[in-house]
Amino acid sequence: MFWSVSAAPMTTLALLGLFLVFTRSTATMDEENNIQMIEHHIIGVSGMKETKQMAFIHIPYPSYCDSADKYRSIDGSCNNLLKLQWGMLGRPFRRFLPQSYDDGVSKPRFFQRDGRILPSARLVSTNCHSEGNEGELRDHNLSLLFMQWGQFVDHDITATAEEEEVEDCCEGLLPDGKHNHYHTGGPCFPIPIPKTDPHFKRKCMDFLRSMPDEKGHKSHREQMNMITAYMDASQIYGSSVKEMNDLRTFNLGLLRTSASNQLPRGKNIHRPCKNETEAPNCLTSGDVRVNEVPGLTGLHTLFHKLHNRIVRILKRLNQHWNDEHLFQEARKINGAILQHITYKHWLPIVLGPGGMRQSRISWRYRYQPTLRAEVFNSFATAAFRFGHSLVPREFKTSVSDHTLVDTMFFRPYFLKVNNSRGLYSIMDGMVSRPCSRPDRFLTTGLTNHLYETIVPPMDLAARNVQRGRDHGLPPYSQYRRLLRRGSPRVQLSRKCLETYNNNYDEVDLFVGGLTEKPYNGGVVGPTFGFIIGQQFYNLKNGDRFWYENKNYRTRLTAEQLRYIKRMTLSRVMCDVLDLEAIQQNAFRMVSKSNPKVRCSDSSIPYLDLSAWKD
Predict the structure, then answer these.
(1) Could you say which of 155, 340, 345, 471 is catalytic?
(2) Model confidence pLDDT, tens digit, residues 575-586
(3) Is 183 an active-site residue?
(4) DSSP states of 365-405
(5) What is the pTM of this model?
(6) What domains are defined for the chain?
């Protein structure tokens, strides 16, 4: 997850105080429908004392799929006609390397191989990722929108559920930094805070382990992906029929909106937004993390509105189309635009030209039904959290040009102020301000003030390290050996290496991967580049409904595909926000090679929907 807190930036910002109870069938293709209740508590930050309301979503595993279906399912099922469940929500993560639990089965990494205790994740964060003002240095080539798009994409493909908190985990912390749940298999895995900590004065940071998949893995603990793995715009439309239906009007294919054409208000489920007089309620979308930060909410709003814009044009072109036809076709177009922007304009910056070639992502799409397009644990829990280093301390909003990120968590208020012109201000700030430099440093807004608007402040880097240990991710050195790069010699600071007792072989994957220098012309190093590249290759070539597919039932026509391939995020912003001008590539700052042009300029082509006229 890009920058959420549950399992990946989720980390990488994550799933907070939310409870969804999914009911799914345990039936396989050869069995009868055997319905069993499975409770999945999606709660990204432990220690929250919130009312826990639950939504019941029925998600049966399919026993039959119709290969003639024109549109992808909402829950990811039936994409692969050989393995009907591949890519569905609730599926276990995959692994590049065998799990590295202390007991080989389920106990989180707490000890080094020599028997000494691993350093506290908070101490690792302080000594490896938080030095001076390094986390505030800007990359004057990349815009904030480059950073924010990563989180938006992450919430389309990864989400990890935490176990339910049954007690205050910090109350059970033992003198050696261990919790008795380490021995009993309970949910608590708190992060000890050293007495000498430069910021926190409490002894512990609450932390819950991720919920295990108790059905699919008998040999060891494995975590689950709680949304569809495919890049299918699930962050806009949801990963279940119930989520999708709650967002639909069932009238002319439109999605629901609230006052001033904003996202609909939260319904039937409590979301822990900061209560403000001007905006007391959270907003809702296809992913429960929509309210984490205003920039993320802004992208949700942008593509929510784009759906309705597409629907209205399609209706004018095809008066005979009914609600279902309009909705599904607009969903297909919206999803295709998201895929194209990500793979054509965003990933080449992440991986660089060399990384795109090395991962084969730049190769022509070729569907491979034996390719499992599901998410790697190391991707969700470490590699795709590289974006945390891109987050700056200050943002431009309608309230101030220097709004601290500390004050923005779970406050959709920033989009609603000034007669809902807040959306324009947030998105304008995203394209006009640079993101932080891609390196090993995180802003103190994330390491000392994470989510302090609604809970006791936490440390995102520490949570990333602790989550990797919770998931049994092997140390960084083992991934380097997987890549046949020999003994790792990343440029860890002396202070950071001493934290690990000068033992490279115990360095956590997040720490080592984030410390590597950019590689192949991208913004990530070789280890994270390999993991991210393999993941996105699989998501593309393992998706039967990929926008470039050639199947006569599911494909776009040649003319439709040509128009989709002209789309840019700048064009989306022009159309939805009624802008007059914007830079050609919204992921990069304005420059001589990326000038600001009028929205009517031919360098930002329109999406001509006349290609969809019957």
Answers:
(1) 155
(2) 999 999 999 999
(3) no
(4) P---TTS----BHHHHHTGGGGGGGG--SEE--SS-TTEEG
(5) 0.90
(6) 9-559 (1.10.640.10), 560-612 (no CATH)
